[in-house]
Specification:
It contains 15 helices and 20 strands. The chain is α+β, with helices and mostly antiparallel strands and 570 residues long. Strands 1, 13, 14, 15, 16, 17 and 18 form a seven-stranded mixed β-sheet that branches. Strands 9-10-11-2-12 form a five-stranded mixed β-sheet, with helices on one face. It has a four-stranded antiparallel β-sheet with strand order 5-6-8-7, with helices on one face.
């Protein structure tokens, strides 16, 4: 699970960033797959060949999947790497489902839930031509324990029952709790039952590497790929060029269609310049994709030709205001409920860029995350806030004249505009809001340190996988996981009933039943009002006219199914 832009904690056990995705225009509407407005393409008119151009402002975090862990770089990883299990392609009937990748099937779990066994497919190789063995899978995963390299997804370290002093294969050697009885069988021993271990293995840290490779900075500028593409050229901050991995066997990989012959990522281009290039659609830019367009560009996309190319895709990320339940008077649930009633979510939406860019949220779980339940615990006309009810609750709590609170916001224009909208809305109920503006580079570190927290903070959260709420509700509301640094439970909610329900649902083996229970827990938590859900981001993409195969049921595009309509163009 990730803050927007990034951060992590374990869900269910103990418990954006730049989204470098894009879409394509023309063809079949993707709306049935969960996308928003815009025509999109499905993947029916994508053909093999050509080079897809990706224009982006910011560099990727790391090429090494043991180090990188954010929405942007995960899109690149989809092209370079495979895992035992991965997320279904975006055009699947259930795009949130976990499906076998390098493994023949999803994991076979023991009756006690502590042992998971996988069998590798035949014919899977690295870009060197060497076969991928169970030992390579074990080695790649064990890199997560290296204190310098394993700084990405934490699930392997937190789920697998490794010795307390284990520090990865380079320092500590073999990890006995991952067994490889033969070259195609791998067995994991867990600390405690975790029914979603398949999903945990789909994270970048589940990537295999040849035994003995990747020490130190070896994978900083070059990698060993297992996916359909290989790294041909890399100039940090400027260029990434991918070419086909000749040893990738499409017959073993139904997830990645890998239409293009090559991918070219041009890095360091200003957002406004990217939008201009996509609007103009000249030369190779007809084959280009990029991140969500700038808010200032929206007004220019209203011509029929450009509207046909727009894809509006709701994300899995919630923007919310966390309320510090340990600070008076917010330690009184009635005061927190009053804040929820007083916020004008419509004005916050407008401050964010309007309904094109966001959808107002009343619940914690976005509708793109399995387990979402439609309900509105603090209703008001036109989502403008119910000031009268807010004042009534404040009076009941002994605060008829209101109170003063400090809200932390990032030093970015749109974030400060959100804060100002909340400031004005709460002022109507007699709540004086002082905005504490924090540098964006240190924002999450600051608000994640309880000793430095103020009364509230505007932030966001994205799940690591959208197939359940297990990486959404537990890290935000499990009181047993409140930490002195890197704290994700910004509300510092520590409610025995909530904690117990997190344990109960986390142990369920029927994920459909578990998702229904997560939805009910969402309602329970919101009666305690530890946060104010504000909105769910929409991503608005403007593809090149020759790009095909893009659908975004959860906001992010799947590079594995994107291609070109005519590879000879551009």
């Amino acid at each position: 699970m990730k803050r927007t832009p990034s951060s992590a904690a374990l869900a269910g056990l103990v418990a954006g960033v730049l989204t470098l995705t894009a879409c394509s225009g023309g063809g079949t509407s993707p709306t049935g797959s969960g996308s928003g407005s815009g025509s999109g393409t499905g993947d029916g008119n994508a053909v093999r060949g050509g080079t897809v151009q990706v224009l982006q402002s910011t560099d990727f975090s790391y090429l090494d999947p043991a180090r990188g862990w954010d929405g942007g770089v995960n899109a690149l990883y989809r092209l370079l790497y495979r895992q035992l299990v991965t997320k279904a392609p975006n055009d699947a009937e259930d795009p949130n489902a976990m499906v076998p990748d390098l493994a023949e099937s999803l994991g076979e779990v023991s009756d006690d839930g502590l042992t998971w066994t996988y069998r590798l497919k035949d014919g899977i190789t690295f870009n060197t031509g060497a076969p991928i063995t169970a030992q390579d899978v074990k080695f790649g995963i064990s890199r997560s324990w290296d204190p310098e390299i394993g700084i990405g997804s934490p699930y392997m370290k937190q789920l697998i029952d490794a010795p307390d002093d284990y520090e990865g294969p380079y320092r500590s050697g073999d990890l006995p709790t991952i067994e490889t009885p033969d070259d195609r069988t791998i067995v994991f021993h867990l600390k405690a039952p975790f029914p979603e271990f398949d999903a945990a293995l789909s994270q970048p840290s589940g990537t295999p590497f040849p035994v003995g490779t990747g020490a130190g900075d070896e994978f900083i500028n070059d990698v060993v790929s297992s996916g359909p593409y290989d790294l041909a050229e890399f100039t940090p901050g400027s260029l990434i060029q991918l070419t086909r991995n000749p040893h990738w066997d499409a017959g073993t990989d139904p997830v990645r269609k890998a239409y293009p012959d090559a991918w070219r990522f041009t890095i360091g281009v200003e957002g406004a310049t990217i939008d201009e290039r996509l609007i103009a659609g000249q030369g190779t830019d007809i084959n280009a994709i990029a991140g969500s367009v700038q808010p200032a560009t929206i007004a220019r996309l209203q011509t029929p030709q450009l509207r046909e190319r727009i894809l509006k895709a709701p994300s899995t990320c919630l923007t919310y205001m966390g309320l510090n339940t340990t600070k008076a008077p917010l330690d009184d649930v009635r005061v927190r409920q009053a804040v929820n009633y007083a916020v004008d979510k419509g004005s916050v939406l407008n401050a964010t860029g309007g309904s094109q860019f966001t959808t107002i949220s009343h619940s914690i779980l976005p509708h793109t995350v399995s387990g979402h339940t439609d309900y509105n615990p603090y209703p008001s006309e036109d989502d403008a806030g119910d000031v009268a009810e807010a004042k009534r609750l404040l009076a009941e709590a002994g605060l008829p004249d209101g109170f003063t609170m400090t809200v932390d916001v990032r030093a970015r224009d749109v974030e400060q505009r959100k804060g100002e909208a909340i400031q004005q809305a709460l002022g109507r109920a007699g709540i004086t809001v002082e905005l504490n503006v924090i540098d964006a580079a240190t924002y999450y570190e600051t608000i994640g340190t309880p000793s430095q927290q103020h009364d509230a903070a505007i932030t966001g959260w994205c799940p690591d996988w959208a197939s359940s709420a297990s990486t959404f509700l537990p890290p935000l509301f499990d009181g047993r996981d409140i930490t002195d640094k890197g704290n994700q439970n910004l509300a510092q909610l520590d409610d025995d009933a909530v904690n117990a329900e997190i344990d109960r649902i986390g142990a369920m083996t029927d994920l459909t039943e578990a998702n229904a229970a997560w939805g009910e827990l969402d309602k329970t938590i919101m009666t305690l009002a530890p946060i104010v859900p504000l909105n769910v981001d929409n991503r608005i993409y403007l593809p090149g006219t020759n790009v095909a195969g893009a659908v975004a049921p959860s906001g992010d595009l799947d590079y594995g199914i994107i291609g070109l309509k005519d590879p000879a163009k551009g």
